[in-house]
């Protein structure tokens, strides 16, 4: 079994941040999950282990959680929580 922090669900041990349309973008860091709190439009995204990451530059509904290894997330509307790893 893999030993990554994502598999161990250790997000709470290193914290998370919330970004909204006014914040616009995440600080540089490594995030293991993007949790959509309100319907949100992702305008830019950088991930090292997500195939077709460009397909995620879209509007996502509240309750959506995307797992991966993200280093940058920008939104133009909505509210998302980024879980650090």
Which labels suit this protein?
85 residues; mainly beta; Jelly Rolls; four-stranded antiparallel sheet; 2 helices; 9% helix; globular
Structure description:
The protein is built from 2 helices and 4 strands. It starts with a helix and ends with a strand. It is globular and about 25 Å long. With 85 residues, it is mainly beta. It has one domain: Jelly Rolls (Sandwich), CATH 2.60.120.
CATH class category label: Mainly Beta
- The low-pLDDT segments are none
Please give the domain count: 1
Number of strands: 4
Rounded to the nearest angstrom, the radius of gyration is 12 Å
Counting DSSP H or I runs of 4 or more residues, the number of helices is 2
Q: Mind summarizing the main beta sheet?
A: 4 strands, antiparallel
Task: Report the portion of residues in β strands.
Answer: over 45%
End-to-end distance:
18 Å
Average pLDDT works out at 87
- The CATH topology is what? Jelly Rolls
**Helical content band:** under 10%
The string of secondary-structure elements, in order, is HHEEEE
Question: What is the CATH architecture annotation?
Answer: Sandwich
């Amino acid at each position: 079994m893999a030993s990554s922090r994502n598999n161990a669900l250790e997000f709470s041990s290193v914290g998370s941040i919330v970004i909204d349309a006014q914040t616009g973008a995440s600080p540089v860091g490594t995030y293991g999950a993007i949790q959509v709190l309100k319907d949100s439009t992702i305008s830019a995204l950088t991930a090292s282990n997500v195939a077709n990451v460009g397909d995620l530059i879209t509007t996502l509904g509240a309750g959506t959680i995307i797992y991966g290894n993200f280093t940058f997330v920008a939104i133009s509307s909505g509210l998302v929580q980024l879980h650090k790893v």
